[in-house]
Amino acid sequence: MTLPSDPSDPSDSHTSGELRSNQSHPLGEIERQIQETERSLNHLKERIVQVQRDRQRQRDLQNRRDDIRREVRQAKNSNPSLIPELKQELKQIQATLEAIELNLESELFSFSALKEPFWQALRFGGIGIIIGWLLRTWAK
């Protein structure tokens, strides 16, 4: 195979086409990986904003819950008719807080994050067992 003297020579289009396709393929793969990384980064940024919003909402609800508890204690002495209404609001706040906590925990921990470590542990654990059996049979 001879190399063309001038890469821009149209007379050797087959060879220069191969070179272009070989060079553009890695660049296309890199561009695809960059786009995938950008999508992951955007998803992560969105998740961070959501977590910050949820944490702020959680703090606000906790403060409101504490205020309602104080109001219930005060209402026992001054106005007992407000107690059922305050307890109902307290239940709603508690349910919302539980939903927020579940949302915060569910996104921070996912089983897909355990996939790779699981298979690595299985692989190396399996290799360790096989090596152990081999050493035991060799030592006899």
From TrEMBL:
This is DUF2203 domain-containing protein. Residues 52-74 have a biased composition (Basic and acidic residues). Residues 1-29, 52-76 are annotated as: Disordered. Residues 1-10 have a biased composition (Low complexity). It comes from Phormidium pseudopriestleyi FRX01. It comes from the Bacteria.
